[in-house]
Amino acid sequence: MTLAITDLKVTIGGKDVLRGVDLTLARGRVHGLAGESGSGKTMTGLAVLGLLPHGSRVTGGITLEGRELLTLPPKELNKVRGGEVAMVFQDPATSLHPMLTVGRQLTEHMRHHLGLGRAESRDRAIELLRKVRIPGAAEAYRRYPHQFSGGMRQRIAIAVALACSPRVLIADEPTTALDVTVQAGVLRLLRGLCDELGLAVLLVTHDLGVMSAVADEVSVMKDGLVVESGPRARVLREPEHPYTRTLLASLPDAEVS
Ligand SMILES: Nc1ncnc2c1ncn2[C@@H]1O[C@H](COP(=O)(O)OP(=O)(O)OP(=O)(O)O)[C@@H](O)[C@H]1O
Predict the structure, then answer these.
(1) 45 lines ligand 1 (CB under 6 A)
(2) What is the pTM (predicted TM-score) of this model?
(3) 3-12, strands of its sheet edge to edge
(4) Under DSSP, is residue 230 helix (H, G, I), strand (E, B) or coil?
(5) What is the ipTM of this complex?
(6) Which of 4, 103, 133, 209 is deepest in the core (most CB within 10 A)?
């Protein structure tokens, strides 16, 4: 087991946002986290990164390979964030800087976290761009984010997230802002990277259709709690919780396999 969340409770401004979340992520597995808007999916991901809103009260445990993250000093947590645990957001505009070249955004991470030199980080950056299937990787290295389509920008954001060889990747609605025609490609890429690099992936999405395409395990959240969790095929074909059944009933038949 790579990452274990146990009895995670988060209160923000007197409101119980997470009420005892249990979740485990494992190497080479995609864990899908589904649930309606406001159920606490994003807060769960942010808690792992130590990025909860200021003033949040947190109890419970989040261990990464046995090490408790919730009590790490800020400096240590900074090393974990972006190093061992990385995140991809819904809109690449939030993670990519519009004024910096793609190459700079990739190498800055590596130089800061891994202490690589200029040439070494450049080579690794181009290799990463190839890995996320950006055509003409060496060319792309010198370009700016706006020179790419939305789908390509999200691939670049994934490359930036992978720059420091994280063990855990949290992808929060990574395809929601994309055109449907490119969504499947980005999901296939995430799946492939998970397998190839042995990443433990938390795929946050309100869309069970997206989930059914790539997740190994699925957890369903409602009102700050995980109400159902298990292997994808079991949860999607034989849901036990009435809320999961409601979510599934709202999907077109063809979307769940
Ligand atoms: N900055 C904040 N301060 C206080 N409460 C917040 C803040 N951000 C979110 N919340 C509350 O936390 C709860 C969980 O929100 P969260 O964003 O985790 O839900 P979600 O399941 O990810 O929803 P969505 O699919 O819309 O992103 C919601 O009730 C929300 O109103």
Answers:
(1) no
(2) 0.93
(3) 15-25, 3-12, 57-64, 67-68
(4) strand
(5) 0.92
(6) 103
